[in-house]
Amino acid sequence: MIRLAVIGDPIEHSLSPAVHGAALDRLGVEYEYKKVHVRPEELGEFVKTAKREGLDGFNLTMPHKVNILPYLSRIDDEARYYSAVNTVCIRNGELHGFNTDGIGYELALGRMGKKFSGSRLVVLGAGGAAAAVIAAAIRGGAESISVACRTAAHAEKICDRDLGDTKIKICGFSDTEIAAECECAEVLINATPLGMEGVSHSFDGFDFIDALPGDALVSDLIYKPKKTALLTEAENRGLKIQNGLDMLIFQAIAADERYLDRQLDMQDLYNTVIDAVGDR
Q1: For residue 236, what is the domain's CATH number?
Q2: Which candidate, 279, 255, 226, 261, places its Cα nearest to that of 23?
Q3: Active site (catalytic) residues
Q4: Which of 78, 154, 200, 247 has the highest local Cβ count within 10 Å?
């Protein structure tokens, strides 16, 4: 029996139990997987509880991917590079941190016929999810990444790495500033919680979508609702769209590899999981 959980704030919307459950069922693994509402100020107490109750690991969603770092005994190179963690394995009472968001998003992007190499991206947000996507894009050889956020210091922190040949630009979050960056973008990625179920606020407007080229992809890391206001507006303008379900599935399978300490068939398990949760 493997005992797992997912934590976040909010967490009610999470499909992680269904996604991991479908994969673990396919693998014939006996498991328990629950979702736990953990507010930012409750993270330390949750860590103590997880150890006391004998959890084998847990996944993290907003807003815990960066805040978990001080509680880790070990962190793998990928997570250290991303400066964010979405998967924790508890081994002999120690927390080991991993990040599977980067590979999860890269595989999801591939399903839309896009790739990081040579691409021009606009990323909305500078939290843990954005950090993983940006780092993966830099590693993947993106030509340029524009990061739009309300606090420049957050973006500067997650972009403070060896950029290779990737050009980074940080801008504000106003409609006008985002629109200026969208003019040459191939992929626009929403890595904020704006539009998520359980989050009351949304974008001030969507005029920036009009600046995107006609062949651009609008990608939202949110998967519930299946189609956010951002994706609806983009689709109404004739643009290709993708929600966060594919990324969720691929990063979850990669996380299961860490929990089980063995390599898994990503594509086979993706097909199993998407059949199980695709209509939710």
Answers
A1: 3.40.50.720
A2: 255
A3: 65
A4: 247
